[in-house]
Amino acid sequence: xxxxxxxxxxxxxxxxxxxxxxxxxxxxxxxxxxxxxxxxxxxxxxxxxxxxxxxxxxxxxxxxxxxxxxxxxxxxxxxxxxxxxxxxxxxxxxxxxxxxxxxxxxxxxxxxxxxxxxxxxxxxxxxxxxxxxxxxxxxxxxxxxxxxxxxxxxxxxxxxxxxxxxxxxxxxxxxxxxxxxxxxxx
Amino acid sequence: xxxxxxxxxxxxxxxxxxxxxxxxxxxxxxxxxxxxxxxxxxxxxxxxxxxxxxxxxxxxxxxxxxxxxxxxxxxxxxxxxxxxxxxxxxxxxxxxxxxxxxxxxxxxxxxxxxxxxxxxxxxxxxxxxxxxxxxxxxxxxxxxxxxxxxxxxxxxxxxxxxxxxxxxxxxxxxxxxxxxxxxxxxxxxxxxxxxxxxxxxxxxxxxxxxxxxxxxxxxxxxxxxxxxxxxxxxxxxxxxxxxxxxxxxxxxxxxxxxxxxxxxxxxxxxxxxxxxxxxxxxxxxxxxxxxxxxxxxxxxxxxxxxxxxxxxxxxxxxxxxxxxxxxxxxxxxxxxxxxxxxxxxxxxxxxxxxxxxxxxxxxxxxxxxxxxxxxxxxxxxxxxxxxxxxxxxxxxxxxxxxxxxxxxxxxxxxxxxxxxxxxxxxxxxxxxxxxxxxxxxxxxxxxxxxxxxxxxxxxxxxxxxxxxxxxxxxxxxxxxxxxx
Lengths: 186, 484
Known about the structure:
The structure holds 2 protein chains of 2 kinds. Chain A is of the alpha+beta class. Chain A has one domain (2-184). Helices cover 30% and strands 31% of the residues of chain A. Chain A is elongated, with a radius of gyration of 25 Å. Chain A starts with a helix and ends with a helix. Chain B has one helix at 16-74; strands spanning 94-96, 111-118, 126-135, 148-150, 155-156, 179-190, 200-202, 206-208, 213-217, 241-243, 256-257, 261-262, 278-279, 304-305, 309-313, 321-325, 328-330, 335-339, 347-353, 357-359, 364-367, 371-377, 381-383, 387-390, 398-402, 411-415, 421-434, 440-451, 456-460, 474-482. In chain B, the strands form 4 sheets. Chain B has a 19-stranded parallel β-sheet that branches. Chain B has 1 helix and 30 strands. By secondary structure, chain B is mostly beta strands. Chain B is elongated. Chain B folds into 2 domains: 51-192 and 473-482, no CATH class; 200-465, no CATH class. Chains A and B meet through helix 1, strand 7 and helix 2 of A and helix 1, strand 4, strand 6 and strand 30 of B.
């Protein structure tokens, strides 16, 4: 009789522990995913804002889900991956304005599946390089709105493991406004 | 009596709950540790983002400090740049490293900025390079990025966004490691704009007669000048003229203009020899010239009248000479010589004539080589006689200003003589009368102008960068970030 009671109690406790383990593991997975994707969002924002600040032209399609900017070519040499390897060049003054390089750099941001890609074209050499700014981000979405010398933007993702119709995307929105410094000075 | 001092023995079937509790605690601790392990690096990464953005804010603050210093020290010709190294007026580049205040908030506890100002771009421009540095929280490299992948999966180390430093301290010990830095580069130019964009710009009418003609050259470019001087074989076609009122008041009388002729409405008469475009949609703002505000005015002379030969000596840029006289009257063979403080040195002289400038006979003003002159007129001015001789080859070395007092057309300035004239005239409320057969290299701004004689007026395109004194506050005109 005592054996049966102890086995019963142990069984109940085992079920509780297993349930707690499964629940915790799932919670961990959700937290981990949310953390990962939020981090990607933050990383994407920092990348995009850095390029927007130094842009001399900004092109945003009507859908507002991608971004193309041009910026001064401040360097004389780049490595094969499109990274500058020289100190910034001294600009020349043309018609009362400083001019770096001959042709500008063009940088575009776009979503490819669950990846955010940054594609850079060096105007002077035509070399194109593409970086994966973020990957494995579920339902990554960009939204840009041009406003003269500023650009507002928002970045969202779809958290995994959400129930149907929970609409958690809005809670992931990272939004801001960037002053396009280079354009303001033109 | 026998006493049993031994502790009572627990039954073998007791203590199971304790073991179960310990196991449960261990299990939950492992779960918590696993969660923290997974999340903490990303949590640290979010702080790195904060630090990275704070580094930019610090760099921007450094640039603002440089701008304030330019307007405080450079624009006012101050002899000392307080807090900068070196702190004298003329030596560039200059470096400023501010004290580091602690600050509160997320991300880090200290920020730092190193600011360098130089004149490497040329002209009157200054370049500011400001590096902002922020500490990253903690001492480990937890959360620091190692590389970013390209589309083929190859690691790209140079493209790492925040480029944390955990080996090399670029602050020399002011901040601890790890840290992030961002460098921005800004160009500053005088905010007065650049009024000298053509040979003739008038608020009112322009009348050309007697074969006067205009074109342009560039004293800073050997392709468009010879020894910094005008050369017809290298001339350019930006000898524009413009009037800020209706063109019907102006008449070019068929004068040859290697450039455009523009008016603010109406039609300029007799533009058949304008080689560029004739338009009537021109409009601009021509700023008044205020009376100068000078730090120290020389005690003498206070007047210059029929003095035979007089020498006014300049000073280095940090100790310029300022002369204020109630008149300048030269006749017969009087000579006013503007001399450097040392042979071959760049020397600066500022002259303010509150009364009339009158030159007649064979009198002349001789500006010696290396001397930079700023000449303010407060009343009618007649630079005639034999004329004004500038021994320098560039027009920015002789700048003549008519102080705007009493409204448009209240005073007259005459420029004539037997030789060539090199300089700029900015007298937006003065009637200008320019005569003679010598050539004119520079730029002229006035209320209206009557130009006679058959000399050529050669606009020096290097003047596009020259600002008008009296409003030499600087502002930034470009912004780039060094992303290496």
